[in-house]
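FW: tagging you since you asked about this chain on Friday. Here's the raw sequence from the shared folder, copied in full. Didn't touch anything.
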Amino acid sequence: MDVVQPLWLVWARQLQAIAQTGLTFSTVTYDRERYEAIRALAAQIMAEHSDADMRRIEGLFADQAGYATPKVDVRGAVFRNGRILLVREASDNGRWTLPGGWADVNQSPSESVVREVREEAGVEVVVRKLAAVYDRERHPHRPPYPFHIYKLFFVCDIVGGEPRPGPETEAVEFFAPDKVPSDLSVSRVLPQQISRMFDHVASPDLPTDFD
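HL: got it, structure written out here
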């Protein structure tokens, strides 16, 4: 699915990436001042066209270092008796999502999703399959995010533990395909993505989805 992003968001991200990479490699004071000005312009564009606070955006951008690359979000599709595990976030108005979050440094993607499922849902899992690698920008997630994100979806099997909320979640439940709640955290997961995870469990030989 190709989703057309607003040009202001594309431009702001591109300017931020240019500034971040430039500040990483440039040692010339004049050039560094120009890259800082570009970074400030990117923050201004994003603040002008969204509800985000200008100082918060500037802080987010200033915290980034090194060559600019997409961030990685991991999600665990955990099944039991034909139903999928969802967690209700303590934030985002208590909406439901697949357990997951940012991949951690020094952890592989599969290790990161195992950790996230344990922390958010209380169960130990093993990864069965990488079901999908989605570019967040090509799917109708809302609201827009300041950085480019790749989302990795893993089908997982429970090997221990009991479902329970974690520090960042309020509830853990299993849902049949026709009972998936409508109040999803669409910043994190979309109904069609959850439906696709059911497809992968029903047909294990499906190839990994991408883009």
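FW: Residues 91 and 168 are 7 Å apart (CA to CA).
HL: agreed, and The first strand starts at residue 71 and ends at 80.
FW: great, closing this out.
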